[in-house]
Amino acid sequence: MVGHRVRTRFAPSPTGYLHVGGLRTALYNYLFAKRMKGDFVIRIEDTDQSRRVEGAQQNLVRTLEWAGIVADESPERGGNFGPYVQSERLTVYGEYCTRLLEDNNAYYCFSTSEELEENRQLQLKQGLQPKYNRKWLPEEMGGSMPSGEIRRKLEEGAPYVIRMKVPDYVSVWFEDMIRGPVEFDSSTIDDQVLMKSDGFPTYHFASVIDDHLMEFTHIIRGEEWLPSMPKHLLLYEFFGWDPPKFAHLPLLLNPDRSKLSKRQGDVAVEDYIRKGYSADAIVNFVAMLGWNEGEGTEQEVYSLQELIDKFSLERVGKAGAVFNTEKLNWLEKQYIKNRPAAQIIDTIRPILVEELDKKESVMRRETITGDSYLSQVIELMRERVGFEHEFVTFSSYFFFEPETYEEEAVKKRWTPETNDLLREFMTVLETLQPFTAESIEAALKEFVAPRGLKAAALIHPLRILVSGVSFGPSLYHMLEVLGRETVFRRIERGIERIVVSD
Predict the structure, then answer these.
(1) DSSP state of 452
(2) pLDDT in tens, 365-387
């Protein structure tokens, strides 16, 4: 260990997209390291080459950086290299495996896959937990296989794996930082494969070697790795190394409390990015899946820096955490309500420009893509959108002429006199100065009062004509933002298209 400096790691396999559970593991490691003024490192565990997906490593790193989780030894932090990659360290694992063989803590196994499966089925029929039957355990290690037979197989070049010899009848114990003391009986532990026939180490072997050599002080990972702990601890014992401290995080659960899986919804972080969720909301939400600040606080919205300042493993629970999308949606809305308009504009302007490239807008492009106009739209729609992209997609009438008019709303709000009223009111709006929400509201009320009408007689038709829909922000403010020219054009166009007979 490097003094008492904390070092944590996130060690994903490049087998696809980043699972939300993986993001939580990475986040907790990152928060813990930063809170303790330590280092956070990424290591790619690609020893299972059959499951490796092209481009997955780059995608994992890119997604983490999108969330604000940047490794300390990466170029982005001033380091000289990207993540550690296990497939580039095969020589290291070979050297340590040789050491285990020499110390009689590991042995060659030449059993075929067919033999292994036959043995497994036999044990299951006998009601036993399937374990390797130690057919190739050498005589000098307490087995029945003569050393000469092992040498002969090696000389023939027969395919083999290298297995760890688990001691008989010992207790393996450790103190989990979340779960407290955990104990295992070695009689339940299989002789784990350390090196596969393709020359690559297994996850269990490589991770222990690397965690020691890379001097990690704390291993924070999901509880699905808890059954692997005795194998890992035995390896630390064989090498005479002090193990790091371990913390196993609770499972993520569906609302029905089943294990979170793609069968019941999205599980990849990229799925949520595509839907428009922000890094702020995702990170905040994931942080709360198992952790809370404690009693006496009502805070639910945290910045990444606030999470760093307040995070502790002592506040991580043992029980599974329910992945509640409704809470994620609520958090997203909180961020949208409070996010500076300039930051939102940076997100939505490219979306708007892309839409403008697909279809023409009667409104001047330089106006509706400008900061001033977009800021007004944002302030009007903050309370009504769930995602930033909806400032464009859900509020398209601020940028494009309505192509249709909500049919049920027209039936409900139009009378034979409505179009004539609208034409009369246009003469009022034509000279109205200034053209503001306040003046438009006052003019409308003054217009309907002597006619014995309620304001709704004009409010609803006006909204439908200028937006195409019967819902939205304050009508008067919407008309002000759209401007007199656009409002007039849309009213005239709508009157021509909406004809109501007696």
Answers:
(1) T
(2) 999 999 999 999 999 999 999 99
Second CATH level (architecture) for the domain 262-337: Orthogonal Bundle (1.10)
Tokens of 306: 């606030």
pTM value is 0.91
Rg, C-alpha atoms of the chain: 33
Report pLDDT digits (tens) over 383-424. Answer: 999 999 999 999 999 999 999 999 999 999 999 999 999 999
Instruction: Answer whether the bond into residue 227 is a cis peptide, omega within 30°.
Output: no
If 0-12 CB within 10 Å is exposed, 13-18 middle and 19+ buried, where does residue 60 land? buried
CB neighbour list of residue 108: distance below 8 Å, 6 or more residues apart = 101, 136, 150, 153, 154, 160, 161, 162
Q: Is 259 marked active-site?
A: no
DSSP β-ladder status, 252-253 and 193-195: unpaired
> Between 3.40.50.620, 3.40.50.1110, 3.30.2350.10, 2.30.42.10, what CATH number should domain 7-75+203-250 receive?
3.40.50.620
The pair of three-digit structure tokens given for residue 271, joined into one six-digit string: 């799925």
What is the three-class DSSP state of 15? coil
Annotated catalytic residue within 259, 262, 275, 412 = 262
Q: Is 185 helix (H, G, I), strand (E, B) or coil?
A: strand
* Cα distance between residue 337 and residue 100, in whole Å: 59
Pairing of strands 245-249, 218-222: parallel
CA distance 107 to 97: 10
As assigned by CATH, the class of the 91-195 domain is alpha beta
